[in-house]
């Protein structure tokens, strides 16, 4: 693998429309649009939303609606899903929704697909009903989507209008080797959820590259890694700001979720040993620090992984500080 430099990396944004303490989802959406408009100016490649349900601290449940909102308020940045949880939806409806988006914003829409429910099992049952085991159909449903987008589907009895004949890049999202095998076999780009599921990252991307089959969509394997980023002018300030995401992940670990809390001076006494171990394991691929610190750490990460694109997600309490973090991160990669 040829050594890559940071300037070779494409860089993008993953947004969960996280709801901050004292605010509402409406505030989150306004902040998302403001961030996307700035990200476009700073050279970010794409802006994705993740589908989650029944989480009062994450407001990105109607993912395709938010994609339209961001695409309407921007001009050039690609906008898409990271991802649509395909077993929650009919492939035809997804094809129609993303066909509509791609018709409104041509050449700018990405469709990232995952097989997880993006929620708990009870909520998954409420979403899927009789199709509760739809995750088993994921490979076949991806093929159905490709067929709906194909111009060759013109004589079929079931057609996606709009959607048919449109160039809408499909990505396979994953957090395990299973998704890597599928992305490789289908010759599709692969986006890994290393921002919260780092354990299988190295195994999965090696499996993907070793087994990649070139396709009409992609000639060479393409790996996108999602990572947590909190950048600030000093290491001390970044570490303080990062206590918000650390507190947020205690809620993920314990099941006692909370709105994104303000930063605190120290995590000592806030988490116990087991909570700290679990949260830090999930946050293994995190870059917290000054531009100098992040630059060194990110180059080391790139040397180890050889990824083609890095997607930053930043749970930062203060919107101005979040904007500043993304601006600093862009400067590191330019």
TrEMBL record:
SUPFAM superfamilies named among the record's database cross-references: Bacterial luciferase-like
One Pfam family named in its UniProt record: Bac_luciferase
Protein family (similarity comment): To bacterial alkanal monooxygenase alpha and beta chains.
Stretches assigned to the Luciferase-like domain: 17-297
UniProt-listed NCBIfam families: oxido_grp_1 (TIGR03558)
Coiled-coil regions listed in the entry: none
Record InterPro entries: Bact_Lucif_Oxidored, CmoO-like, Luciferase-like_dom, Luciferase-like_sf
Protein name from the UniProt record: LLM class flavin-dependent oxidoreductase
């Amino acid at each position: 693998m040829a050594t890559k430099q940071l300037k070779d990396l494409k860089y993008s944004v993953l947004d969960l429309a996280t709801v901050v303490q004292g605010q509402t989802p409406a505030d989150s959406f306004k902040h998302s649009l403001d961030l996307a408009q700035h990200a476009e100016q700073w050279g970010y490649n794409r802006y994705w939303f993740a589908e989650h349900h029944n989480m009062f601290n994450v407001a990105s449940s109607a993912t395709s609606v938010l994609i339209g909102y961001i695409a309407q308020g921007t001009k050039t940045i690609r906008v898409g899903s990271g991802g649509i949880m395909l077993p929650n939806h009919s492939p035809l409806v997804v094809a129609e929704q993303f066909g509509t988006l791609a018709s409104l914003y041509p050449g700018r829409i990405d469709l990232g697909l995952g097989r997880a429910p993006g929620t708990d099992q009870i909520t998954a049952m409420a979403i899927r009903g009789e199709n509760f085991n739809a995750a088993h159909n994921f490979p076949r449903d991806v093929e159905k989507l490709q067929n709906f987008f194909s111009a060759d589907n013109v004589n079929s009895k079931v057609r996606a209008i709009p959607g048919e004949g449109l160039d809408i890049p499909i990505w396979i999202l994953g957090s395990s080797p299973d998704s890597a095998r599928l992305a490789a076999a289908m010759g599709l780009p692969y986006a890994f959820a290393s921002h919260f599921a780092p354990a299988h990252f190295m195994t999965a991307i090696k499996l993907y590259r070793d087994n990649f089959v070139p396709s009409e969509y992609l000639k060479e394997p393409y790996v996108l890694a999602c990572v947590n980023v909190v950048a600030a002018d000093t290491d001390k300030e970044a570490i303080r700001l990062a206590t918000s995401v650390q507190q947020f992940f205690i809620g993920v670990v314990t099941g006692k979720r909370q709105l994104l809390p303000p930063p605190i001076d120290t995590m000592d006494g806030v988490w116990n040993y087991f909570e700290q171990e679990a949260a830090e394991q999930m946050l293994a691929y995190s870059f917290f620090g000054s531009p100098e610190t992040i630059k060194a750490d990110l180059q080391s990460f790139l040397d180890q992984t050889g990824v083609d694109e890095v997607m930053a997600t930043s749970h930062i309490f203060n919107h101005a500080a979040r904007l500043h973090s993304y601006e600093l991160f862009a400067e590191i990669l330019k």
